[in-house]
UniProtKB/TrEMBL annotation:
Pfam families associated with the record: FAD_binding_3 (PF01494), Rng_hyd_C (PF21274)
InterPro entries, alphabetized: FAD-bd (IPR002938), FAD/NAD-bd_sf (IPR036188), RIFMO-like (IPR050641)
SUPFAM superfamilies linked: FAD/NAD(P)-binding domain
Species in which this protein is naturally found: Sphaerisporangium aureirubrum
Lineage, opening ranks: Bacteria, Bacillati, Actinomycetota, Actinomycetes, Streptosporangiales
Needed co-factor(s): FAD
Keywords, comma-separated and alphabetical: FAD, Flavoprotein
Protein name per the record: FAD-dependent oxidoreductase
Domain FAD-binding, residue spans: 3-331
């Protein structure tokens, strides 16, 4: 074996996954086609709250916060959303270019001991019962126990694994230019809808702007070149001005095709990030979705490689993340439809614009776009879940007072090592040390009487919770004697080590 896990693609998803696997002690090799990061090609321009939270859980958020700029820029089809009331430490959008995000993730991966080979392109793949071989463009093969395709929307791994990618084709043409503007708009986030399409101008860094045009009356051919002239023409056609644009750093084109892999797992091959789903970048969700796929998959794949994964754990990756991806495809389709430049859509926008002003609607859309409201369907009994309202939601970052007299701590700090956490807030009885090699038992007091959970509301603070390494609550008890924590531990963390060895 050349590695326990081979990750194909060193974009945000592949790098985050490699960090998660390495944290769990897995030997990971990332193979990346690009020789070096092309610093001008920064697609995503920001991170949402849940992505900041998952980085915070691992103690790796600080450099991202230091490099980025908080902004109240969340929106649904350019209708502004107010995140200030959300129960998170990060109720904003962090403006940070994708190239910088990748650089910081790569630094962290290398620190953790991830091996990165570049430039290497994967061109072939075959799997058997014991592993997967990937063929490299320069000749030769690499073998891993598992291979994860994090190789973007045109994923070679997905195609080689024979996974279908159904969905809807493009209905519009969007052009993007990172340019200097002699006469920029006054607003830092400028968005307008006109008869021929929409235009957005964002000020990212001093000296240059990102201009995005969307034309609803044509679908560009795949090989049609993008030049400063085509962007200028689109701006003039839509908004009547080109803002004095010049000196492009990067020009690109994209559409609103929305497609999703039928299966996220085929035997020993898995898919994550854009390799598993592509959609219109409305609301800036793609990179976030990929990083969160990686955090869901990482510990499950590590448990499988280490040999303690309970039955079905790896398949729960598809079961949990496919619906989350489908929801993003759905909401981005709705967002692109809501921007169409016809009279009927204008009327619809006015109605929806009014609704967004209603707190409950703002919270629903905000929870969706930030992914703070993601709740995995765990309450199916067979994983010992029970019926507590916290089951499946993300653990909120509540303050805790450890019972051993240690310093006050935030809940996220308990997840630094990427292990499970059984948090006893006074209701746990019995001894549960059979899982000590995978789960930390923490006894603490929580001063908050209720926990605010996006998408659920206020829930009385529980007496105990079992938190998975990805930060989602797998089991919760109201009071002593409530529920069966051993069943939940068995269901998510496998057979206790004592039983295994004894
Ligand atoms: C214009 C635009 C704006 C966007 N804005 C946002 C935003 O604001 N917020 C947001 O969250 N998302 C945004 N996105 C989406 C975001 O860029 C993607 O969702 C994100 O890059 C996905 O990350 P990934 O790692 O899954 O795939 P990618 O970033 O595509 O990375 C895949 C990697 O795999 C490598 N690779 C490909 N094939 C092979 C192979 N055969 N062998 C080896 N390596 C290979 C590639 O070189 C690449 O490095 C935007 C996208 C666009 C187009």
């Amino acid at each position: 074996m050349d590695a326990e896990v081979i990750v194909v693609g060193g974009g945000p998803t592949g790098l985050m996954l490699a960090c998660e696997l390495r944290l769990a002690g897995v030997d990971v090799l990332v193979v990346e086609r690009r020789g070096a990061r092309v610093s001008a090609e920064a697609r995503a321009g920001g991170m949402h709250a849940r992505t900041m939270e998952v980085l915070d859980q691992r103690g790796m958020l600080e450099p991202f916060l230091a490099a980025g700029r908080p902004m109240q820029g969340a929106h649904f089809s350019a209708l502004p959303l107010d995140l200030s009331g959300f129960a998170t430490r990060y109720p904003y959008l962090l403006m940070l270019l994708q190239t910088k995000i990748e650089l910081l993730l790569e630094e962290r991966a290398l620190e953790l001991g991830v091996r990165l080979r570049r430039p290497v392109e994967v061109v072939g793949l075959r799997q058997d019962e014991a592993g997967v071989d990937v063929e490299l463009d320069g000749g030769g093969w690499l073998r891993g126990e598992y291979v994860v395709g994090c190789d973007g929307g045109r994923s070679r791994v997905r195609k080689l694994a024979g996974v279908g990618f159904p969905g809807t084709g493009a209905t519009l043409t969007a052009l993007l230019g990172d340019v200097e503007l002699a006469e920029p708009p006054a607003e830092p986030i400028f968005q307008e809808r006109h008869d021929h399409g929409t235009i957005g101008v964002l000020s990212f860094e001093p000296g240059w702007f990102r201009v995005i045009t969307t034309e609803y009356d044509r679908v560009a051919g795949r090989d049609e070149p993008v030049t400063l002239e085509t962007l200028r023409e689109a701006c003039v056609k839509i908004a009547g001005t080109d803002f004095g644009m010049r000196r492009p750093r990067w020009l690109s084109r994209f559409g609103d095709a929305a497609r999703q892999a039928e299966r996220y797992r085929v035997g020993r091959v898995l898919l994550a990030g854009d390799a598993a789903h592509v959609h219109f970048p409305a609301g800036g969700q793609g990179l976030n979705l990929g990083v969160q796929d990686a955090v869901n998959l990482g510990w499950k794949l590590a448990a499988t490689v280490r040999g303690w994964a309970p039955e079905g754990l790896l398949d729960s990756y598809h079961a949990e993340r496919h619906p989350v991806g489908a929801r993003v495809l759905h909401n981005t389709r709705a967002q692109s439809a809501l921007s169409r430049p016809d009279a009927q859509t204008t009327a619809l926008r006015e109605v929806v614009g009014g609704l967004v002003g209603v707190e409950a609607v703002n919270d629903l859309l905000g929870g969706m776009v930030t992914a703070l409201d993601v709740r995995y369907p765990m309450a199916d009994g067979h994983r010992g879940a029970g019926d507590h309202p916290l089951i499946g939601v993300r653990m909120p970052d509540v303050d805790l007072l450890p019972l051993d007299g240690g310093a006050p701590e935030r809940a996220f700090a308990l997840l630094r090592a990427g292990r499970g956490v059984l948090l006893d807030l006074g209701a746990l009885d019995g001894v549960h040390d059979g899982w000590a090699d995978r789960v930390d038992l923490v006894r603490a007091r929580c001063p908050a009487r209720t926990w605010a959970i996006p998408g659920v509301g206020r829930v009385p603070a529980p007496g105990a919770v079992l938190i998975r390494p990805d930060g989602h609550i797998a089991w919760a008890a109201r009071a002593q004697g409530d529920g069966d924590v051993r069943a939940a531990l068995n269901a998510w963390f496998g057979v206790p080590a004592g039983v295994l060895t004894g």
